[in-house]
Each structure stands twice: as structure tokens, then as C-alpha cells.
Amino acid sequence: MFFSSKPFEFSDIPDLSGKVAIITGSNTGIGKVCAIEMARKNCQVIVASRSEDKGQAAVADIKEITGNDKVEFIKLNLLSLQSVQAFVEEFKSKYDSLHILLNNAGVMMCPYSLSEDGLETQFATNHVAHYFLTIQLLPLLIKSGPSRIVNVSSSGHNFTSFYAPDLERINDEKGYGPFTNYSYSKAFNILFTIELAKRLEAKGIKNVYVNSNHPGMVRSELGRHSVSKDSLFATFLYNVLTVPTEKGALTQMYLATSTEVESNNINGKYYVPNAKPGHPNGYSKSEKNAAILWDFTENLLKEKVSGYQGAPV
Ligand SMILES: NC(=O)c1ccc[n+]([C@@H]2O[C@H](COP(=O)([O-])OP(=O)(O)OC[C@H]3O[C@@H](n4cnc5c(N)ncnc54)[C@H](OP(=O)(O)O)[C@@H]3O)[C@@H](O)[C@H]2O)c1
């Protein structure tokens, strides 16, 4: 494995003129920082967010901060597979290339609820919708290569060591644990990365680099369901333990933009701050588990999306 001898900095992002990037959940948090830094480097950035108001406000901010006008909002609600399809159709009607897909949006430790398609919210948002989005955009990513896919995971995936997921019961309310289910969903980001890289390689496709990462413990809106704002001590501890979103964006910016990803053939890997190879836990690094999750997700999409043809790899 390779990693830079010096910490990655935003100034290491190469010029991205002519590149097109989609960043899910980039109206706030780490995703918004990524959108700003890529726009600064002349990238065409698509802010893929569920709220038109928040998405448009972010676009206005990013344009003002960077002076880059090539920033656009396209609505994407990851709690609806139909919305994912509509997003892909709109994107493809406007753009004929895609170089960077940053699967960043996420939800953590929310109360139990179901998506429009009857899937548990964290499973639906963090894994299934991003899987579906990626699979539909894959032909374009291949055609536009060299291209990158980054699946934002979390060190929280480590908790799957204590609770091996039963995929058949993943959407059940009985047995739902806000943190347990978050851990599963973040383990799935790593497993999806492993299997997709393997399948691309098996097809002889060498120009799509797919990796996953943990951004660090970052001060963002992710704790909206879990961090109490009423307790001064909890707020103090949270501030001590977390880093600003700018720091949290570095590892995924490395995987999405650094020339080292191609020169060192970094593919199918999991990275941690600051841009270093990480070690997924036993469940999440297993090729067998990656294949099982892939098949499970494919079957789910065939059941939920009429006309779904299956992944092209
Ligand atoms: N912060 C951390 O310490 C930390 C640690 C490990 C991993 N991560 C991962 O880093 C990624 C970014 O998190 P963050 O810290 O930047 O969190 P954040 O500030 O809460 O941002 C999350 C983004 O995801 C969007 N999102 C949530 N549900 C969505 C849906 N159904 N459809 C479309 N967009 C949706 C949110 O949109 P709304 O504003 O509309 O809700 C928001 O834009 C996540 O994948 C998270 O799991 C974060």
C-alpha cells in the first residue's frame, strides 16, 4: 500500500478544469467543504441534495466563495429510489461525462423509520440508494475514465465485530439499534467498494478507481439525532473530540482528486485521516461478505425498482 510522506492538503488538489463531479449531501458538512475545494480548482460541481432550499443556498455560497459559476443543484432524495432514478435522468440530460462521484451523504443514529421503498432509513440512505446511484452512473464513469468513486464510510463500521448483521432482517424494527444499524450501513460502504473494484477488474476496466474512507470525528450536523445540545458537558466533550469539517474533508478529497490514486493504483481500498491506508475490521474486509451483500442488494433492487436490469459488471 502507498501513502504520501506528507499530509494531504487542499493545495495538493490538481486543477480540475473540464472535470465533472457529483457530491451527494453537499449542502452542508463535509460534503459542502469538498464542493468548495473542488469548485476552487475549476471543477463542474453538482450539489446533489434532497432540499431545494438548502441545495440552492449552498450553490450560491460555493459560487460566492470560489468565484466558480459551474456549480449546480440537482435534487436527490436518497430515501426514494424513484428520486435516485429521476436524479440520474436529469444529470444525464445535462452532462455527457462524469469524472468524480463522491458518495458522501449520510444519516446517523436516527430513530427507526422506513424509506419510501420500505427500507430502514440508515440502510436506505447510506447503502442502498448510493449503490443504486453508482450502478446507474457506472457506464458514464467508465466512458469518462480515468474516473473516481469515493464511498464515505466511518470507523463506526468496527462495531459490526460485535453484531454480525442479518441481512434478511435489516429492515425490521425489532432488533433495530440506532448505532448498530449505522455501523452495518458503514460496513456496507466498505464491502460495496471491495466488490465493485473486484468486478471492474474482472471486466478489464482499469480506469475507474473506487475507494472508501473514514473522514475522522468531525464537527458537523451528523450528530443531529445523537448529540444533546442541552448538556454543556456533552457539547464541551463533542468540541474537544471532533475536528472541523475542513479537516474531515481531506481524506476523501485525496481519494477523489490526488494524482497518486492513479499513479499508485489505489483501488478497492479503505483510507483514514490523513490520506493513509486503513484497516477495515474482519466483517468489512471479507470478500465473501462483499459478494453476499452485492447479491442481496441486487435482488432488493430487482424487487423494488421495476425494470431494473442489474449491474453492468
Ligand atoms: N461527522 C463525522 O464525525 C463522521 C464520522 C464518520 C463518518 N462520517 C460520514 O461522513 C459523511 C458526511 O457526514 P457529515 O459529517 O458531513 O454529516 P452532515 O453534516 O449531517 O451532512 C450529511 C449530508 O447528508 C445529507 N443527507 C442525509 N439524508 C439524505 C437523503 N435522504 N437524501 C439526500 N441527502 C441526504 C444531508 O442533507 P440534509 O441537510 O438535507 O439533511 C447533509 O447534506 C456521512 O456519510 C457520514 O456517515 C462522518
Radius of gyration: 18 Å
| CATH level-4 homologous superfamily | NAD(P)-binding Rossmann-like Domain
Give the distinct bound molecules: NADP nicotinamide-adenine-dinucleotide phosphate
- Content of β-strand: 5-15%
Q: How many domains comprise the coordinates?
A: 1
Report the principal-axis shape.
Answer: globular
Record field, number of beta strands? 8
Largest sheet: 8 strands, mixed
Give the termini separation: 25 Å
- Arrangement of strands in the largest sheet: 3-2-1-4-5-6-7-8
CATH topology: Rossmann fold
Instruction: Output the number of helix runs.
Output: 10
Low-confidence stretches: none
Order of helices and strands: EHEHEHEHEHEHHHHEEH
Helix/strand-derived class?
alpha/beta
CATH level-two architecture: 3-Layer(aba) Sandwich
Q: In CATH's first tier, which class applies?
A: Alpha Beta
Please tell me the overall pLDDT.
95
GO molecular function: oxidoreductase activity
Family: Belongs to the short-chain dehydrogenases/reductases (SDR) family.
Keywords: Oxidoreductase
Organism: Phascolomyces articulosus
